[in-house]
């Protein structure tokens, strides 16, 4: 064996060293189609990226001929980044839509003599026009439901003409199947007239291209010979058809998924493709991953219970991590109290050393977040809502990345810091944050995040050039590797899929929200159970589950019934009761207070405070004097929550003050000097 071969061998052995025996089977079984049934947190992403790296190192795969298919841009970015860290940069990791679009844009002109149509990114406007034309209404909720129904029909290979036959009991905001079908037909016609396609059309067009033009099919199949498909439980009929056309009966395919995390059937996904893979592919091998590397045994046991999986049974997750606290369950009289409890819990976790970025609150629907946001703002907990817009897709971030590349290549003598200075100056960024919360502020924060990210990397590298920094930034953007904000994440359960945090709170775990009121029957009901399971399995160490009465009574979710003792139903209290119950909650741990002394302190005597109480008292005295002097109520000067935030942060400059919630330029102008004086006096 040559020295080169020995080195190669050693590298591929090292790749396998990072895997457990089952993951190793996934990585090394290259002769057969492989289906991996991987439980949550069992390292499926690790297993498949290592499979690709191992096969490339062993000379079995040509990196450029390998396509890893994912279903979200984030997952594709993560896959690219992991492959790059294993030294495999040439392999393609793409979402199915991006892979299909690339092929269409390249081959369409050869097949049909015209460019591939423009992709309509936002179909809402088109559906609204069609709804207005056909139904005489473009009510937002109706259009939203029609938009997702059309998407469901298309991913399920159901045409407008066939829709009424298959619609069954599907409900679309009161529209009849015939009406939905008519809107769909109108929508398709509009797209044709304006020469655009939607996301689902990309997949359909690609499938047509492959079936109508065998010579192009051959070229595409010649380009991609090895396939790995992640999240296979989420493929739809259309996606399954396209993937089958790409693979075309070859053995070089590995699909990975978790039937317990199938949560997209409302969008046309069908886990039957995952479960039927072995019988559909002769010679296919099945590997089960059940060793969980993410969560404590307590979190896993609780998650297994949600799914009613028998401990020790074949599909039960097995813990490998250290023991941690038992998940806690809380029924609250109202959503405000629930949100305040979460805020207090997060502050306590943060005070104990958990970074804000390692905390998350998950919920079933977006409408649950405003109450929570208000409580977190009041408590001074920084948060970020996981939105639809991705960091690198924001106009200002795209512009900054682009400009950075331009400046660095035009003036290669500049350091990364100097390049950044020019870029930010050109984009009108100033070190002082604009006050308020609008678009201006968002733009400022995005650019500041890019600045900090490059600045931190620059500090860690010796002799880094502007051009190297530009390439680094470009690569981060292609991986969708957003800067980690020092903030708690708020997210729907759906959007939390694939992510993990040290401590996770799930709110609104009550009947009507989870299972959702419209999902009370099978198969939707089981999907709700899986959704909660996805939420539970995001937590590494701490899990806090709560529910609250919104109007009248609320009953905790049936999915946690066997884990909770105490009354199943909580009642919303009268106004008086509600405020007294609020004052009876500990502001540190969120649990009820028992003694008069505790109520005065607003916390349990043994719950650690997260701020200097003497400073807080000094600030209160100052506030009283200030308020009395101006004959205004104390909260006009600062609310208790803001004073607490000041006492916790101990700001030493006006800039520090401006970073605190509830404090803008005008407050700083009016009271900044006074507050900073109190702090200085207190320190002295
Ligand atoms: N063999 C292993 N040894 C140690 N840690 C591992 C191993 N495999 C995976 N992990 C760790 O376990 C965690 C989960 O891995 P990964 O993200 O690959 O899981 P997943 O199966 O894709 O999760 P999910 O489907 O729940 O999103 C990661 O933090 C990963 O680094």
TrEMBL record:
Residues in coiled coil: none
Keywords: ATP-binding, Helicase, Hydrolase, Isomerase, Nucleotide-binding
Domain of life the protein comes from: Bacteria
Any one GO molecular-function label of the UniProt entry: 3'-5' DNA helicase activity
Family listed: Belongs to the helicase family. UvrD subfamily.
Reactions catalysed, as given in the entry: ATP + H2O = ADP + phosphate + H(+); Couples ATP hydrolysis with the unwinding of duplex DNA by translocating in the 3'-5' direction
Ranges for domain UvrD-like helicase ATP-binding: 17-296
Organism name: Tessaracoccus flavescens
Name used for this protein in its record: DNA 3'-5' helicase
Listed PROSITE patterns: HRDC (PS50967), UVRD_HELICASE_ATP_BIND (PS51198), UVRD_HELICASE_CTER (PS51217)
Principal EC category: isomerase
Alphabetical list of SMART domains matching this protein: HRDC
Domain HRDC residue range list: 609-684
